[in-house]
Structures are given as C-alpha cells and as structure tokens.
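User: Can you predict the 3D structure for this chain?
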Amino acid sequence: IKLMRYNGSTAFETYQVHFRTCAAHNGWKEREKRAFLTASLDGPAAEVLWTAGEQELATSEGLMAVLQKRFGREGQAERFRAELRSRRRKSGESIQDLAQEIRRMMTLSYKDPKSETWQTLAINAFIRAINDQKLALRIRDREPSTLEQATAIALRLEAHRMEVDVD
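Assistant: Here is the predicted structure, written as structure tokens:
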C-alpha cells in the first residue's frame, strides 16, 4: 500500500490510521516507519521536522505525537467549532452534502458521536446551517433525536416544497 502525503490541512486522525495501516501491511520496521513518515510530510506538517525537539523526532511514535498535538482533533477542536458555528448552506448544495459536512465538522469538534449531547449539537448545527427559518421550524417541530433523522425530515420537507412549487 502506498503512503499518501500529509500537509496538515485535514484531520490528522485520518492520516494516522492510514499510516499505521500502510506500516502494518508493508511490514515496516521502526527505521522504515520514521523514514516514510518523514518523507510523507508537506507544508505546515513538514515544519514540525525543524521546530520539534530531537528527542521527539527520534522515533515514528514521537513524530506522530508531535503531529497529533499540532494537527489532531484536540489541537484543532476550537477551530472546527468556530467553522461549525458559521457554516451555512451554499447555493445549490444538497441537504445530504450539508449533513455530511456537519457530521465531519462535528466529529472533528467533539468526541463520542453516539452521545445524546453530540446528536443535539449536530441537529442544531444542521438546522442553523440550512439557513431557512420556515424549514428549520418545521424540522424542529418534528423533534428529531439524531442528525440522520433531521436530515431525512429536511429531505422530505424540501421534496414536498418542490412538489408544491411545481404545481
């Protein structure tokens, strides 16, 4: 399996899983892990190679820990929360695409997507992002308990609205 490049613009946790999968599948020893990991870094992610301490960079796990602190969920959660608060549906964007983006941002912002609190925050972010007060009120009236339910309700209501607009 070929190791993809990482520049720090996406969630580090995704890259970390990819790296560990490549290392296990390809049977890399520690020296190879560190070499491949170092060579895969670009842009801001590569900057850790000259800003981190020598000891932190001595092993692949040390380097992963530095990258985790800098680009992982914990270090970026507040940024993703701010993006989530300001996210609004774009012109022509589908309900499904909006819901997927809210789900991604929620996952980067908060732990435990199975919790009731996570679902409540996700539903509120989704409804706010729809940016249509009438549609938002109709979704809230149906009291969805998950983001998936809110998405399904929004899809139905939007389909009904299009059907009425055509007539």
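The mean pLDDT is 91. The two ends are 54 Å apart (CA to CA).
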